Amino acid sequence: MPTQPKNRTVLFLCLGAAALLAAAGLALYLFRDALFPLPPLSELRTTAYEVLNAVPAPLYFLALVVLPATGFPMTVFYLSALPVLGTHGKVTGVLLVWAALGLNMILTRYVARGVFHPAIEWALRHRNLKVPKLRRETEWKVVLATRISPLPFALQNYLLALGHARWRTYLGLSLPIQGAIGLAVMLLGESILTGGLAYVLLALFLLLVLNLLLHSLRKRLTRETPQSLN
Description:
With 230 residues, this protein is mainly alpha-helical. It has helices at 3-30, 32-35, 41-53, 57-66, 74-85, 90-113, 117-126, 139-147, 153-162, 167-170, 174-194, 197-222. The protein is 74% helix and 0% strand. Helix 5 crosses helix 6 (90-113) and helix 6 (90-113) packs across helix 11 (174-194). Mean pLDDT is 78; it is low at 225-230.
């Protein structure tokens, strides 16, 4: 019985805090223009597009080749790629991104299998981890399962490189999947910056189709036993 007043006090305090937060949120929403004056959305889009257009394309291309190998998210590049690399045409921009994507995969493989290989192996052994060497008969399934997984892009590359995935599967399966995802996100980024409805619809359509295809592939691959994917 003595605990009831304490419980009521805690309840009233929580209700009071929730009411204050709700009032503060409502005030911020009603007076947002006076408190945080922002230019119109179209002006923000134009400014962002102009800033990206001013980025040197060779420097951006080099960053796109190198930075994802360090774990930098590819999505950031995809969303901003066309304003920088597509100044001479959207098709040119997409092709340049795909070329940088392939070069990044090659760079990551050489990093994982080259000068940094002893350090990576030591780090794995230190954590009692081991990346098994892929068997040729199931290699394509492992590569495909890895590429459609939610793992970060850089981690996918390193895992496949350490598993000794051959070039024909490492690049042959990776580029079409990642390239299709990249194309959809690039079009989405272009539509966000330009407000173009056509790009929005095309990007959403591509993302929907890709999601359905990848979901179907995941269902098929999950039917495989773990031993068959080793």
